[in-house]
Predict the structure.
Amino acid sequence: MRTSVFAVIFLASAAFAAAQNGANWSYAGHSGPLVWSKLDPSYAACNRGHDQSPIDIRGARLNKALQPIQFHYVAGPVTIENTGRGIVVHVDKGSYMVAGGVRYELIDYEFHHPSEHPVHGKLTDMEVDLVHKSADGRVAILGVRLNEDRGNPNATMATLWAHLPTRTGASTRVTDMVDAGGLIPADPGYWTYTGSELTPPCTEGALWFVYEEPIDVSRDQLRQFTALFRLNTRPVQDLHGRKIEANE
């Protein structure tokens, strides 16, 4: 009995350490998405979970009770991090959204190429995922798809890309006023479903809102990102009977 207790404590400690420090993973090869769950016990949900993201958006049902998301974003300094797997923008406290009557604080947002979420099997050129968290720890993620428009740069990305760290592990503090609201489409239509975080440990229970309308990214902005990351998206996951709803 004593041995089994110590074994449980050891496994729990190992899982906690992995969640904190992160066993090495990638988007391809021997540490790619197909084997994420084998890299560490804390990553088990990545390949064994039933509410994983991303999914192919199709067959959504209209739910007129769903209200538009209310944004209370404030412009301010940010920190841009090159994780070696993507670009993450860490924001200062103060920005939040209200969805379903719940307030979710904006934590960070991350860019992907191509998009994580296809719509009827079709991917866009990029996706930015804005991660929010409620006071009681619930995670809500906004997915915004981006399509290349040769001469139409995104203003928020233009500010960020001027400070883009190109070396893995590097971070840049941007003192310019950066407004995440510039990444939100004008049309309030969205699809919503219950899913997971996109990267290990692929924690489930995240509430997803994927906007129906893509926004523009210029060819130069797209090329600047793909020069660093040729592919940093996860394969589409099984729906496992989950419902996708639309607010309009």
